[in-house]
Amino acid sequence: xxxxxxxxxxxxxxxGQYILQVAEKYGVEIPTLCHHKALxxxxxxxLCTVELFDGRRTRFVTACNYPIWEGMxxxxxxxxxxxxxxxxxxxxxxxxxxxxxxQKLAEDYGIxxxxxxxxxxxxxxxxxxxxxxxxxxxxAIALTGRGVEMxxxxxxxxxxxxxxxxGACASVCPxxxxxxxxxxxxxxxxxxxxxxxxxxxxxxxxxxxxxxPYAQAVPNTPAIDRDVCIHFKTGGCKVCTQFCGVNAxxxxxxxxxxxxxxxxxxxxxxxxxFDPSRFDTYNYAKHPNVITSMEMERILSASGPTGGHxxxxxxxxxPKKIAWFQCVGSRDLNRCDNAYCSSxxxxxxxxxxxxxxxxxxxxxxxxxxxxxxxxxxxxFERFYNNAQGKGVRFVRSRVHSIDPIxxxxxxxxxxxxxxxxxxxxxxxxxxxxxxxEIAPEVMALADKLGIELTDGNFCKTTSFEPVETSRKGIFVxxxxxxxxxxxQSVIDSSAAxxxxxxxxxxxxxxxxxxxxxxxxxxxxxERPRIGVFVCRCGINIAGVVDVPAVRDYAASLPYVEYVTxxxxxxxxDTQEVMTQIIRGKKLNRVVVAACTPKTHEPLxxxxxxxxxLNKYLFEMCNIRNQDSWVHKNNPELATEKAKDLxxxxxxxxxxxxxxxxxxxxxxxxxxxxxGGIAGMAAARSLAKQGYQTHIVERSDRLGGQAHRLFRxxxxxxxxxxxxxxxxxxxxxxxxxxxxxxEIKQVEGFVGNFKTEIVKEGKSEELEHGxxxxxxxxxxxxxxxxxxxxxxxxxxxxxxxxxxxxxxPELRKLESAVFIQCVGSRDxxxxxxxRVCCTHSIENAIELKERNPDADVYILYRDIRTYGERxxxxxxxxxxxxxxxxxxxxxxxxxxxxxxxLTVTVTDHVLQQPVQIRADLLTLATAIIPNKDEALAQxxxxxxxxxxxxxxxxxxxxxxxxxxxxxFLCGLAHYPKPIDESIVQGRAAASRAIxxxxxxKIHTSGQVAxxxxxxxxxxxxxxxxxxxxxxxxxxxxxxxFAGKAQINPVxxxxxxxxxxxxxxxxxxxxxxxxxQIFAQIFAVNQD
Amino acid sequence: xxDWEPKIVSFLCNWCSYGAADLAGVSRMxxxxxxxxxxxPCTGRMSPKFALAALREGADAVWVSG
Lengths: 1086, 66
Fold this sequence. Notes:
The complex is a heterodimer of chains A (1086) and B (66). Chain A has 1086 residues and is an alpha/beta fold. Helices cover 29% and strands 26% of the residues of chain B.
């Protein structure tokens, strides 16, 4: 160790260190332009000049490359130093008057104008680029020439092959002299001098070779991109290792082949967005203002390349008109091979248009050019209607080409309107709604695994086993199974997990390890002994916040017995040290000032548990995400804020009490309500995974509506498969079927339900841990189109029954008409019934097959044959089935005149009314839910306006309710075909098993609790709680009858009841009034 | 102009705004260091008494977000 004086203070440094390094350690700032931590210092810019006293005389040296020695005295901010630096800045500014960095420095040193002759250079000859290039293992550039001729250049000023166009020189250049443009034009011969495109930002932004793919990535640790990292090309660089505070970077790591023994494989490789570059007429590859929908997603995102500011890419101006083109790379055999519909693009285009208008204001003109608007998902039709209300234009036209307008950044579009007129419009920006494709590498994987693919290269499955591939034990979910949106993918993934669980049930819990339990120390009644751990988080916190000052400040706070700072509090070794400190210092409350509790609270709570302390005797203080990271240019105030936050946390933690987590046994029995396809699928999966299951069915048989269905969209007969499924249920000893049974009463909650069912007048009580609601739906009985007046007018299911019975009349038909959207997508039922388009087309094809001479018409509004169902639509057109589009305000007219049944509709092409004499009229009636309000009440689950149950989360929790222990599947959720019902049945079982398999659950300790002495029995808490946790103590109770009590199992700790209790009778443990007030009182130091 | 800076007590819902404030950090956005965050489990927990207490304790403004 070498001791010397820095600005009069004694400091210490290691042998061989330079003044600058030691100064940095002690937080003494010395300005420099040419210093880089990873490079040997060169003393080129001279800005780090300091005053050195060696005992006899004073001289000036450059701090960056002057080694320290014992007894020296250094002054970094004396007047002489200041004057010296001012002169240096003045000289640099004279050389490079236009460089902003130097202008800023000049302003800091009070230089208005250099006294010397000015030049127009931008290079200060600091040589940082040259040293960096050398560090890269390359030396493509050097300082060439002598004296005034000196400059950074390649040998002989010839563009060189040696330069790898890595851009390291540009990244360190302090003045901006070296740019990517300069590298391209003057240094390298390579063509690809570009930023490394960020995959997450669709190449609209660059990224580094060391990177975290995106902010929410899991794991959130950086990775090195071996393909672009210079170290793997030259063996040089390794700059990152010098910056990593914990030596976590190891360039010598090799790829490893890991062999895993598994019983099942689930494939979820996802999709690849369609690349529209090959469509010449859209000019995507050539024009910056033609972008893909994926790029638009990033532009609209607050974390995107433009920070969420909606601009076009050519000139970063705000667009006034944007168009979306649908079906780019979907429903197209002409220009690509994707005959299927990508399912998701209509909805995302509407979403983007609505968000674009939200960002840019109502004046933004958004037009969506489409063929059929396919908003067949739950609540999507409403969104579509609302978008129209917000002024989004929907133009039914497929546009052939986009023409850039010469001399401007705008784009011209020529299209044919519905009326057959040719229109020309210009747009500032055009978004191509690209479809979903399967990547070639996924196809190769499928080949390797030996699984079959469909015509569209999706994984081949069947309607009755929708997540099972053609190879046993291999399952599939997500877009590889077929193009689909998030909710459907989430449902799929749960179902695939259940399918794997079914075949692996015997192995459940065989690889589980139990952690050792440390006995908890009783600290009740003890005086608080608080330990405060302040995290440096490498330089993430310490680089801005003065961590030692915060630590020392914490030590001055009441009840604080111990303080320290850690380099990384979350690292495993620190955790162990913390555990020992808590034990050794007998701490009974802990504050960690570090990152965010949202990610790290559980980790530190575990540390407390390991130290024998109740995990709720803890408070986290966010001095990184909400302090150092957001106030990096304001270190002083950031430090003040950190002190305030620590003070608030200490005040709160002192009042924290150990909390108990109620343990709850989960009854290992499931109940499925509804014995249709979805309910049976759920029950079958639960039983196959070893759980006793009750099916409660209202009617006298299992199978529900499926009994009336003829075929699935992939051409499978329903009857045979249904029979097999019912038999499977009947044969399973774990499943008890209760037919002709209704639910009369439900008591209890997650893990312990008691349900009373009534079977033919006899009542029975069943105990179960979870419930799956699969109450299904029914076809609407229409009151229009003369339904019921004539035997030739049928509903879809009635036609199915005739098809199943092979009615000879069907073979004699001359003319058959289908009317779509009967009762769907209107004011009364503003939702799409999802299955009817496919169903009618399938039946139309069947009629055509039974009698090829029959004229078959389908009167529709939008054909919604999503996914690979689109092939049916194509096939129908090829077979000569005639599709006539009608509008909601001009519905078809059905007339019965004696023997004649006539349908009149205005043809969309002819714009003329057309009369069709029909021998058969099939009405594609809406699916309506069996709106069961009593059941909703029993399980405390919500219904929406249409009568469907409302799931926990539209995207991420589609098969479960917000109420714990209650799950959802089938038509009760939303209309869906058989395959999707089966998938969701399995998904509900899967979600239920995540609960059942735990056998016991621990509730959170942070729940509300009533004080019956104060309770006035007003009932506000009971009415306000979204989770039905509060209830009145029964009137016949011995104590506190009629007062409110809160079931800790159901309570989610939101505190709504606490805030609304007029008597102050409810406490929220962990966030109680005194604790929050303590924080508030500590906001200002007194 | 004075150097006066307000001190704002912010009650942020754990599930949305608190998470958003974290994300602002992850995205390295910058904002003035005037807020002091009190994390609450849900804005349903918010009581008018908290806002009043904060003002009485010398806060210049109270921000409830959730």
